[in-house]
Structure formats: C-alpha cells, structure tokens
Amino acid sequence: MNTIINELKNNFRRGSICIQLIYINAGVFIITTLVSVILLLFNIDITGLFHWLELPAWPQRFLIQPWSLFTYMFLHNGVWHILFNMLWLYWFGSLFLQTFSAKHLRGLYLLGGICGGLLYMLSFNLFPYFEPLRYATFMSGASASVLAIVAATAYRQPNYPIRLLLLGTIRLKYLALIVIGTDLLLITSANSGGHIAHLGGALAGLWFAHSLSKGTDITSWLNRAIDWVVSLFSFKPKKPKMKATYGGSHQADYDYNARKKAQSEEVDRILDKLKKSGYENLTSEEKKTLFDASRR
Prior knowledge:
Layout: H1 2-14, H2 17-41, E1 55-56, H3 59-63, H4 68-71, H5 79-96, H6 102-126, E2 138-139, H7 143-156, E3 161-164, E4 168-171, H8 172-185, H9 192-213, H10 220-232, H11 248-277, H12 284-294
Antiparallel strand pairs: 1-2, 3-4
Helix pairs in contact: 2-5, 5-7, 6-7, 6-9, 6-10, 7-9, 8-9, 11-12
C-alpha cells in the first residue's frame, strides 16, 4: 500500500499541471464518493451534505458558503461527469501548454471556474425564467474551467487541426464555436446552470488570451494567491545558502545553479516577447524552449 501511495505522490510531483489537476479532481471524487457510500451503509441521510461545497444559485445561501465559488469546480456527480471533463482537460490542457505556461493554465483553470460560477449566479437571479429553480439549484463540475482552457487555446491557435472520431479533421476555432454555440442554445435546458457556466468559462478564456497578447496577464493575481496559500502549508526548512568554491562538488553545484539561472532568464525573455508580439513571432528554438519549460 505504501508503495502505491509513494508512486502516486511521485507521479503527481513529476506530472504536468494538467496531470496534477486531474489527480486533484480524481482524489476529491474518490473521497466524496467513499464518504457517501459509507454514510448510506449506516442509513445516514446525506441529502444536501455536499451542497456546502457546491455553488448555490441563491445569493443568500452563497453568502454563508463563499468558499463554494472555488470548491465547486473540483466536485463531480458521477463517473461520466468527471471522465469527460478530465479527458477534455488532458487533451486541450496539453495543447494549451504548447503556447502558454503551466502557471497560466493553473490560474486560468480557477479564473474560468470563477467567471462561470458568477455568470451562473447572475443569470439565475436576473432572468425570471429561472426564479422557480433559484432557491434549490446547486452546481458542480470543472466544465467552466475546461472551456476557458479550450477557448484560450482556440484564440491562440485557431487553425490547429483536431481529429474527431466521426466528423474527421476540424479546425480548433470551429470546434470551439460549435461547443459555445451549443451551450448558448441549451441555456433553458435541464442543465441550464451548467451551460451558462460554460459560456462564462469560455468568455474568461478569450479574455485571458486577448489580454495576454496585449501584455497583461489577468491570471497573475490568482497565481500569487495560490503561491501564498501553498507557502502556508509548506513546512520545508530553509536551505542554507551555498557558497561557491573552486573545485570539487561545490564547483559542480555552482555550475548547476548558474545553468538554472540562465535557463530561467531565457524563459522570462521569451515570455516577455510572447506577450509583446505573440506566439507567431517566436523562433522555432524559442518555441521549443518554452514548451520544454512548461513541462518541467
């Protein structure tokens, strides 16, 4: 058992940000499902138990559980729900990382979920059609976050060919338009909240990609917040400063640190160029360097 757990931990650490997000979603799904099964075995009523982690449409309920704006995007109802969301996250997240950084994906996942959740609550309280559903509707799932990643990728690489099983090859921009158009047509369906959230996530993705092309990263504040939270739960002792000496292992350490610093500076330079002039103006070597850095 310890071997399996250690292997999972190592895979999580070595994996890309896509793999890490998939691990987190899968872990939450397994835990919540096990809790539900155990409670039901003891005939304990679990009605509404996970509503405290899902996003309510009613503002008064949201005021007493504001954390649900973040937690809902990691919850899924059923195997098919999480399976399709994680497949899309893996496919389009991997494509996203070819032109954006891992931190961009991490921040956009949250931004897409936030924008999708806010548009869902706004719509359910603005349009009279949703009034009968407003007080008992809760939402969960990573769909809005995933659609943000799809939309941002389509904005940056609109003509990227996507092979579909029955439809053949289609350009990414058309696939994104089909998905967004379908959500727009289905906003009064049984899953109206989900389709509205998809639209909010897609708008967040377009906003992010357009802003980044102008030199502004709208996910930077989210990434700073994530880094701060992670630092609170990091109990690693501070490493002593290394003194560079000539010869032996100290010299090897010095050379290694110098190479890492040079690589970091080169990635920063390429990202600055990407923000100012776009992905198309990067050289092949710069694209390769950026892609390699995003997978570390």
